[in-house]
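Collaborator request, handled under Task 6.
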Amino acid sequence: MEDGQKISVSTQELIEVLAQSGSDKRAREFAKENNISKKEIDQVIISPQETNVNNSVNHKVLLKNPVNRILNSNKMIRFENGDHCLLIYPSEGAGVILEDVHKNQHRFSQYKTPNSLNEIICNFYGVNSKLQEDPVKINIELSNNMYDLIHNKKSSDLDRMIEDQSIDSKIRLFLRDFKKNNQQVSKITFKKRKNEKNLMQPDFVMLFVPGENNIWHINYEETDNNQIFLMSNSVSHYFNTLHNILDDFLQNHPQKNKKVISGNPKEEIGKFSFKRGLSFFWKSNLLLFIVILFFFINKSSWSQEGASDVLLFALLWEAVILLLSFCACLKKKDTPVVKKVKSA
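Structure tokens returned to the collaborator:
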């Protein structure tokens, strides 16, 4: 393939190229990444059949080299936008191989340098890479429950939230962008292969929602009390940072700019925390101990007749503290908090 040249093939043609690769295991891995069913790949690998499309043979010859490079690659980056996928693999030197997957078509291209990737990725998400100002300039703090709630709401219910004047205008701005993105979060997954025998596994993930004039980055890293930060960025800043992360990842440079989420954050965030309960327990007992000390200041006046009453008082409050400590372990319902920030 020439630099910048694009080759489009159908899923069937791609499967046939994979079947001729000589590595069934890598071919199946690549097929899975392209949402090709096990039945389809099995059918061609076991009983290969040539298609009769006029330019099919020529495309297969041109694809043979880049596909072999992809199968031998130990890294990839997967961009998702609804049912549309963009896959990026390292090539020779600082070069990259791109695969644009939409419906039943796969479009491959190869670039000797990654300089044009920013514009390609921005076009993939339908955002303007030249927007350098962030008109919003805020962070929004949402509880995990609230974050789940807006994903599961009906479109009509989300419309009512967007029009509800009692909800902060900045939050309604995010909800408007979220609804425009089909109530979905756009995901970028960075994958690595630990050794030649293993399949690629996710190394880290970036989640965001493209806005009309900004990007909402979803941050799980710098959070407390099961909170999620929606961090507003200018389009230019966000994708320039992404370009640096992408270049570092593909070229094995130290990833100084990495601001991402590792693993599946929603599985890591629990609804029950002993830490919260233990913190409440010792603070409450400290307060109870101070109160009882006040009783002992005047101990001589009640030590003979009131000792049992003081003991009963302490035991009753200890029982209440234990019950409240258990309640503190449970996650409280939080309302969204809007925080102003100086710049993107």
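The cover message to the collaborator said: "The CA atoms of residues 107 and 309 lie 82 Å apart. The chain has twelve helices and eleven strands. Please let us know whether this matches your experimental observations."
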